[in-house]
From TrEMBL, chain B:
The keyword Transferase applies. The keyword Transferase applies. One of its GO terms (molecular function) is CoA-transferase activity. This is CoA-transferase. Transmembrane segments: none annotated. InterPro entries: CoA_trans_fam_I, NagB/RpiA_transferase-like. Keywords: Transferase. Belongs to the 3-oxoacid CoA-transferase subunit B family. It comes from Streptomyces triticagri. Pfam families: CoA_trans (PF01144). PANTHER family: ACETATE COA-TRANSFERASE YDIF, CHOLESTEROL RING-CLEAVING HYDROLASE IPDB SUBUNIT.
Length: 306, 265
């Protein structure tokens, strides 16, 4: 019975499995790309690395920024950034982001965290804006002169900020599990805004730690872990450790040792080319192998010290 | 989780042994006295210890997060996971919670002015900063929706400035200029630094010295402040921690002494 139903359901549907390279191939120069996760948490880093290897450029990046923003900025891929911050969480400042801002490398649409969320919500709901109190009185309005206020049509007559819709050409998110059809599952404590990014985008791509059969999604987990629905998803990529070096609980924590090495290299223009050469000059498999070698080196050093 | 470690005999922790960091912890905790059943959102080590101390003593109804998406049912030491969880607060709910007003946040400040305008975004011209910092983060939404206090671990005229470079958290003058919608839920209860406690209880809502941490002089504070601070005729000292509070700080909430790293003696 169950088997029959599964067959009926899956029969005419092709899977959306693709490679990170294929996802990067769908991103065109000049597009607006939303990137899920938050800071240095569950970022679709394998997809970002695929973008770094591609010749795509002039991107408008929309992100609760972390190393995704840093790496794309360092590679000169960003024409415009829409963000409320960029941070590595355990390291407050993202070094490539701060350096790029200080060089004036890209246009910056600096929004408040909540304005960003309601802007993305408006984008998903196909509304021009959402009214928010956030922003009034702050310099967010000064540095975004195109932002407008709106007056309540009701008796309160309140004047509020019209948080402009953030509509995306493409969304990139990384989840713990997905089925081949684009049903994405998160198993950590926080969904972040990954479903919203997918819903606000013309095309959404989900990378995940592991692709599983649809019937296996809820074998060990409740239905509320099913975050992203396939009707919004255009591609599914299996990329184990694809969020590295950001966290992807419960599959893996943030790689703090590697993040420290990244920060040290990113802060030092002399050291960055060597880091880039060692970790970012090959494909994803080469990256993961280089990370494994990095950790072997680290434990060897520790062994020597002891 | 009710064991508070080995009890220190009362009286063994005299005022002379109370460190500056511990005065700061108590001053931060006081910000959440009578806050009611709200979420305490501390940013920084000393405010985190302070919020946990408040919950363990005079404000047991406070809600606290683990720094991620969980509301803690117990009060572990800083850096430790809770044994029990009472709720779920992922970022999307946390941002939405600000609009309900049921939260009192204590943010950091890279710059703050006499009106309580705060900056964590960048130093220098915004168009091309001399030093890019975090970005405005949630400071605009916080200040317009729920009580927002500030914590400055190193009080200096580089932080307490005449004018901030990028208004992230909204001060009293800017809220008034922006109109009734901006002022409706705007409240900046306190600014706490390693030198003292400050508020805006003045006719023109500019910053006033409310209390000095013991060992600090008025002159020390005014010299480290880049604007004319309102200094009352008599300035009290920040209250001392009780023996129970000291024991909770030292043995339960911060046994590793992380507070002393943020505010060195």
């Amino acid at each position: 019975m169950t088997q029959d139903r599964d067959q009926d359901r899956g029969q005419d549907r092709s899977t959306k499995i693709m490679t990170a390279e294929e996802v990067a191939g769908r991103i065109e120069s000049g597009m607006t790309v939303g990137i899920g996760g938050w800071g240095s948490r569950r970022k679709p880093m394998a997809l970002v690395r695929a973008l770094l290897r591609s010749d795509v450029t002039d991107l408008t990046v929309v992100s609760y920024g972390g190393p995704d923003v840093g790496l794309l900025a360092a590679a000169g891929k960003i024409r415009k950034l829409v963000a409320a911050f960029a941070t590595l969480d355990s390291v407050p400042l993202e070094p490539h982001f701060t350096a790029a801002r200080q060089r004036g490398d890209f246009e910056f649409v600096e929004l408040d965290e909540a304005m960003f969320m309601w802007g993305l919500t408006a984008g998903a709901h196909r509304l021009p804006f959402m009214p928010v109190r956030a922003g009034l009185g702050s310099d967010v309005l000064r540095v975004n002169p195109s932002l407008r206020t709106v007056t309540s049509p009701y008796e309160d007559g309140e004047e509020l900020v019209a948080a402009k819709a953030l509509r995306l050409d493409a969304a990139l998110v990384h989840l713990n599990r997905a089925d081949p059809y684009g049903n994405g599952q998160y198993l950590g404590p926080d969904p972040y805004f990954d479903d919203l990014f997918c819903e606000a985008a013309e095309q959404a791509y989900v990378s995940c730690e592991q692709v599983v059969e649809t019937a296996d999604l809820l074998k060990e987990h409740g239905p509320q872990t099913l975050l992203v629905k396939r009707l919004f998803v255009h591609g599914v990529v299996e990329t184990p450790h694809g969020a590295h070096f950001t966290s992807c609980a419960p599959d893996h924590d943030r790689d703090e040792a590697f993040q420290r090495a990244y920060v040290a290299a990113a802060r030092d223009p002399e050291a960055w080319p060597a880091f880039r050469e060692r970790f970012l000059s090959g494909d994803e498999a080469a990256y993961q192998a280089a990370v494994a070698a990095f950790h072997q080196e680290q434990s060897a050093k520790k062994g020597d010290a002891a | 989780m009710s064991a508070y470690g080995t009890a220190t005999p009362s009286g063994s922790t005299g005022a002379s042994t109370v460190t500056r960091a511990e005065y700061c912890v108590v001053a931060c905790a006081e910000a959440w006295r009578n806050a009611g059943e709200v979420l305490a959102s501390p940013m920084g080590t000393v405010p985190t210890i302070g919020a946990r101390l408040a919950r363990l003593t005079f404000s047991p109804e406070l809600l606290l997060t683990d720094g991620e998406a969980l509301l803690m049912a117990d009060v572990p030491a800083v850096g430790q996971r809770p044994d029990a969880v009472e709720g779920w607060l992922p970022f999307r709910q946390h941002l939405a919670l600000t609009a309900t007003g049921r939260r009192h946040v204590m943010m950091g400040a890279s710059q703050i002015d006499r009106h309580g305008n705060q900056n964590i975004s960048c130093i220098g011209p915004w168009e091309r900063p001399t030093r890019q910092l975090l970005g405005v983060r949630g400071a605009p939404v916080n200040t317009l929706n729920n009580p927002t206090s500030y914590w400055v671990p190193r009080h200096s005229s580089r932080v307490f400035v005449d004018r901030v470079d990028m208004v992230s958290g909204v001060g009293h003058d800017r809220a008034a200029e922006a109109g009734p919608s901006a002022m409706r839920y705007h409240r900046i209860p306190e600014v706490i630094s390693n030198l003292g406690v400050f508020d805006f209880e003045t006719p023109d809502r500019t910053m006033r010295l409310r209390s000095l941490h013991p060992g600090v002089s008025v002159q020390q504070v005014t010299e480290a402040t880049g604007f004319a601070l309102v200094v009352p005729e008599e300035v009290p000292y920040t209250r001392q921690p009780t023996d129970v509070e000291l024991r909770l700080i030292r043995e339960v909430v911060d046994p590793k002494g992380l507070r002393e790293r943020e505010v060195p003696a």
